[in-house]
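Quick question: who can interpret this fold?

. . .
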Amino acid sequence: PLWRSDLFHRETGFYADPVIGDRDLLEEAVEEAKKHKIHIEAWFEYGFVAWWTGNDMPQYPKGPLFARYPEWLARKSDGSEAFPSGHTGVFYWMNHNHLQAQFFLISLAQEVAKKYELGGIELDRIRYPGLDCGYDPYTSALYKKETGAFPPQDPANAAWKRWRADKLVQFQSNAYDAIKAVNPKLIVSNAPSHYSSGDAYPAYDNFLQDWRTWLNIGKLDAAQVQMYVKPEYLK
């Protein structure tokens, strides 16, 4: 965190990113925003991503959170836990369906909503890194309990995709309600992946992120869409 988080400290022993020392960058930003009458939102960048190997902490190869809760790690169908970052190093993602991991993320958002004078909170990466994810023991057991079968080996299986996307719909709903319970005036936004014109819906098809449903059921106040799109796709 880039704020002084009592919750993060309780779980990991760290109040904030060691790089910032004892500073509280969110508090500093809020104070500057107030001086200039600027609306400010806390951006929960990376969402379910809880570690990047580019962080220089050899004693925590998967980060302090996963050192304590290795069962929170998301997995691919081959059992591996490392996912491409898009740049250098790899990401380690939290299990999207583990209730304790979900509660941890929501509690962080509530902590910020209580402690700081904000205009809103933006959630980020409330999605999967790709279709080949969700094969951890917790998710497999949950899927078996609810459907009677283990997750299909084909990550693109339609029913398996829909099940995982629906779980994220429920998470977004829970996070939205929890934040509003602390401060109903906060804008709860999200930075979802884009969708193309016509019938294409890459946010869902590639990342299981059905954010149009989030809007339609009233669990998202604003969508600040990520448009990382190659020029040839914009023609």
Summary: Helices lie at 6-12, 25-35, 64-68, 99-115, 137-147, 158-182, 202-207, 211-216.
